[in-house]
Design brief:
This protein has 10 helices and no strands. By secondary structure, it is mostly helical.
Length: 192
């Protein structure tokens, strides 16, 4: 098996999509989208500031280069079916995010085995507790997550509807922020 087949699971469509998103044509396409999105967001910020109202102004408008890279890396993650791992490392505020990404999209059995492994490591150090207590101690110490349920929901579980929501957030998040900004200004002006 050659390297391309290994990277794409042998699927020629995945290889073609990967090649496209790494191309200059994709760079140009993504750059146009990112420029337009940034101009819209900047216009909304100008509008919000011009109203001189008590409105939360959009903050943190990403640079065009950052946005292009974000969309490209997300697209590549979709192609190689690593969207959960991408989201954990790129969008979640976790300590040791790359390590946490290893636990993305586990089955229920894999999750139970992982918790048991963590608990066994703590027991080997003389720390007592049930599996969930020791696994909670692990996610607190290693990933700075307060409880096991939060870690499971944020890192481990990735049903299809969550993946779609993450995709929508990553692709349309800036436009949704702009839309909300316009709605806030409209509401403020209607109340005057």
């Amino acid at each position: 098996m050659n390297l391309r087949n290994l990277a794409t699971g042998g699927d020629p469509r995945k290889a073609l999509a990967t090649k496209f998103f790494q191309s200059k044509q994709a760079e140009a396409f993504l750059s146009i989208v990112a420029h337009r999105e940034r101009r819209i967001m900047e216009a909304v910020v100008d509008l919000q500031e011009a109203t001189d109202a008590d409105i939360d102004v959009i903050e943190g408008v990403p640079s065009v280069d950052d946005r292009v890279e974000q969309i490209r890396s997300m697209a590549l993650a979709m192609i190689d079916e690593s969207l959960p791992e991408w989201y954990i490392t790129e969008a979640m505020d976790l300590e040791n995010a790359e390590e946490a990404a290893q636990y993305a999209d586990l089955t229920a059995d894999e999750w139970e085995t992982t918790k048991e492994t963590w608990a066994d490591r703590y027991r080997e150090q003389g720390i007592e507790g049930d599996v969930d207590e020791l696994a909670t101690a692990h996610v607190r110490a290693r990933f700075d997550v307060d409880d096991l349920e939060t870690f499971r929901e944020g890192v481990v579980e990735w049903p299809d509807d969550r993946q779609r929501a993450v995709l929508e957030e990553a692709l349309a998040g800036g436009l949704e922020m702009a839309e909300q900004g316009i709605e806030d200004v409209t509401e403020e002006l209607e109340d005057r």
